[in-house]
Amino acid sequence: LHKRKTRLKVDGKPSRMDMLTNENKDQTEKIRVEGTDKNDKLEDVFSYSGLLKKGEEITSNHANIKLLSTMGIDSCGRIGNHFTYIKNNMSLLRQKVERARQILTTLQFSISKSGAGHIPLSIPQTNSETASLTTSIKICIKPVSLGGTVLFVKGNNSASYGVALADGDITVTAYDIENDDIGSVTMDKVSVTDQWCTLEIKRTGETLTVTAVPQTGNTQTVRKMVTNLQLLQPLPLMAYVGGVPQNLGINDGSWEGCVGELIVNGRELTLFSPSSENNGTTLCTDHCISERHKLSMVFNGNGFARFIRPDRESISLITLKFQTHQKMASLLSVINNRNRFYLTVTMANGALKIESSSPNENIVLLSLNSSLNDGESHFLRIVYKGSKTYPELDGNGETFSVERAVPQILREILDGVLVGAFVSTSREFLTTSYRPFIGCISDISINDKRLSLPDAADIHNTFHGDCKDSSRNIWESCWQWTDRSKPLSLGVVENSNRISFLISRDALGPVIHFAKEEKFDLEVTMTSAGIEVSSGDSEGVIVRPEKDNTYFTLITITDDGKNALVQAWDQSVTFSYGGIWGFVRSDMTTPHSVVLGEPRDGVDRMFTGYISQFTIEDRFYDLSRYSSTYNLSHCERPLERILPLTVTDVKESFTCV
Fold first, then answer.
1. In this predicted structure, what is the pLDDT of residue 648?
2. Given its phi and psi angles, is residue 257 left (phi above 0), alpha (psi -120 to 50 degrees) or beta?
3. 427, 446, 329, 467: which is closest to 644 by C-alpha?
4. Measured distance CA(236)–CA(125) in Å, rounded
5. What is the pLDDT of residue 88?
6. What is the spatial distance between Cα 403 and Cα 96, in angstroms, rounded to a whole number?
7. What DSSP state is assigned to residue 545?
8. Gap between the Cα atoms of 478 and 436, Å rounded
9. Strand 520-526 and strand 509-516: pairing?
10. Arithmetic mean of pLDDT over the chain
11. Less Cβ around it within 10 Å: N or C end of the chain?
12. pLDDT (tens digit per residue) in 468-502
């Protein structure tokens, strides 16, 4: 390039390079002059005050940053952890408040009701409630006023019952679904002021029986048949003490006085709660004089209660009291995975079986008594001393034998204390060997610390109740006929014009043989399609409805003096024995022979299935007393799904913005 440039200069002509360079210089100068002119124009409108504000803002931010750097601000993660900690503490506090409220409600205080209005009380409900042939109500009162409604028990789309006072006379009234009066029972001059009186109301089918036990005076019992009462009634929904809500249209006035006890269908109702004082309720100064039965946890083959225990707890003593008719059932499990401690207590063919495993001992113990399913109360005490297991049954320490077997450890079972059933970690009943419990369990303690139902972390289909009143419920009074069972003859029964009972859906064969001398000889046989009824040469059929999905069916047999009537599913079959055109005097006094599980002709046809709540007229028959002689087994309730735990806390998440 240098040579080229030199050559061009020698020729006397400007080089191309020089021409380009000069052109660039002219353009640069032009741009510089134009830019200078523009900057001069911008300088005329520049805000020096704005520049000053920006400087002050920078200075302020610098000071704030310096201050923040000295304060040690938490990270977003640490703030989130603090938020979760506070939320959990609030949740725990709410649980403790609720637990305290539950414990308070289980303390059965006597209450004093004064003024107008009424006290609403909820009746404990469980899942899969089945309508029953019986209803029971027990209340203990000490009147201040001898007039007004003492109690009103509201049915669940079924009959309701009211107890009212009028000048000391007690009247128990049954109401239909529309709250219309359908019948009542009255006892004269039973109650007086300032004295306790216990009232027991029992319904069996269509018969009401009222018993009054005053503090002074004689016990009175009145029985009356109320023809329009439903035979099957579900558990009532509510109870109202001292009055009736206006919307029910029943006005017998308000009542004032003390109430010391209220039990409906074996469930004891909580009389006093933190909100009761708003209803004119205070605590009574004394208590009911009736003999109170100790409350138990009541199980119906579909429930359990779970208690959480400390991980580091060392077990030294376990006690419990139980009563049942089951031969095979789950009573108790105590599981501590941290300490490798496993204990299960079960009913095994009527005996009590204890399986215990720990780092120092593995043992299986079986009670020598194999008739512990007699429905009576039995007390178990297990002592752990020197890493050894020492059980006592009903105060006798020599009632167990050591079995040559290894304890069965249920690895998938929930830890803690389970009462009434074995439940897996996926919340399903474990029934490999033993069914959920049907009966009552009480006086449970671990290391002398009693476990009460409000302390349970998980409660499913279990309630506090009176075992005596619970004995008539469907599953407790249910008995199974198998191919090894024998026909059960009740002999010739007086006052037997009506028989009612519940029978299971899968029952097959001749269930009952009902005869009246030479007048009729009735046989009722269960089939897969329904019920076949025969008497002599006459036959009839009751067909099971297609949409019927109930497990139990009510069968009623009635003798009206001229006709024998069998009813089920709103259908009936009638056999007349009153002569032509019925010109024969009605016979309501001749007794009947009653046999369960035997065909009329004696042919080898067996009955299999469940029978529950067997009643003749208003008399409830406890079939448990025949179980051993006739090889009857206690019913096993079909398994049900365990409902998920109810979560009351709303889960809130913390987010850094």
1. 42
2. left
3. 427
4. 9
5. 66
6. 44
7. P
8. 15
9. antiparallel
10. 82
11. C
12. 766 678 999 999 999 899 999 999 999 999 999 99
Provide the CA 92 distance to its chain's centre, in angstroms.
24
Q: Which pLDDT score is estimated for 523?
A: 93
Angle between helices 16-43 and 2-11 (to 10 degrees): 100
pLDDT tens digits, residue range 547-575? Answer: 888 899 999 999 998 899 999 999 999 99
Considering only CA atoms, which of 564, 632, 625, 623 is closest in space to residue 592? 564
Q: Which amino acid is at 24?
A: N
Calculate the alpha carbon distances from 443 to 344, 372, 378, 423, 449 in Å. 17, 17, 11, 21, 10
Contact 214, 190 (CB under 8 A): yes
Closest CA to 555 of 576, 526, 589: 526
Strand partners, 336: 341
Query: Which has the minimum average pLDDT: 97-101, 235-239, 244-248?
Result: 97-101
Exposed (0-12), middle (13-18) or buried (19+): which is 74, by Cβ within 10 Å? exposed
Task: Give CA–CA dist 541/30, Å, rounded.
Answer: 119
Amino acid at position 267, single letter: R
- What are the φ/ψ torsions at residue 477 (nearest 5 degrees)? -100, 15
Q: What is each CA distance from 257 to 92, 145, 194, 274, in whole angstroms?
A: 39, 7, 8, 19
* Nearest residue to 613 (alpha-carbon basis) of 552, 570, 564: 552
Q: Which tokens belong to 373?
A: 């399913």
Q: Residue count of the chain, please give it.
A: 657
Q: Which H, E and C letters describe 534-596, residue by residue?
A: EECCEEEEEECCCCCCCCEEEEEEEECCCEEEEEECCEEEEEECCCHHHCCCCCCCCCEEEEE
Complete DSSP assignment for 192-219: -TTS-EEEEEEEETTEEEEEEEESSS--
Q: Selecting from 3.40.50.2300, 3.20.20.330, 3.50.50.60, 2.60.120.200, what CATH number does the domain 307-470 have? A: 2.60.120.200
Q: pTM for the full model?
A: 0.77
- Assign 563 to helix, strand or coil: strand
Residue 637 has pLDDT above 70, yes or no: yes
Q: Take residue 233 and report the two structure tokens written for it.
A: 């009634």
**Topology given in CATH for the domain delimited by 111-292:** Jelly Rolls (2.60.120)
Highest mean pLDDT among 46-55, 347-356, 457-466: 347-356
Beta-bridged to residue 233, according to DSSP, are: 132
Burial class (CB in 10 A: 0-12, 13-18, 19+), 209: middle
The reported pLDDT for the residue numbered 471 is: 63
Range 501-509 average pLDDT? 95
- Per CATH, domain 478-634 is 3.40.50.2300: no
**pLDDT > 80? residue 329:** yes
Under the banding of pLDDT at 50, 70 and 90, the label for residue 271 is confident
pLDDT in tens, 566-622: 999 999 999 988 665 555 678 889 999 999 998 766 666 789 999 999 999 989 999
The C-alpha atoms of residue 495 and residue 619 are separated, in whole angstroms, by 10
Return the pLDDT at 294: 66
Retrieve residue 34's tokens.
Answer: 């134009």
Tell me the CA distances in angstroms from 232 to 64, 265, 473, 544, one per residue in order: 79, 14, 12, 18
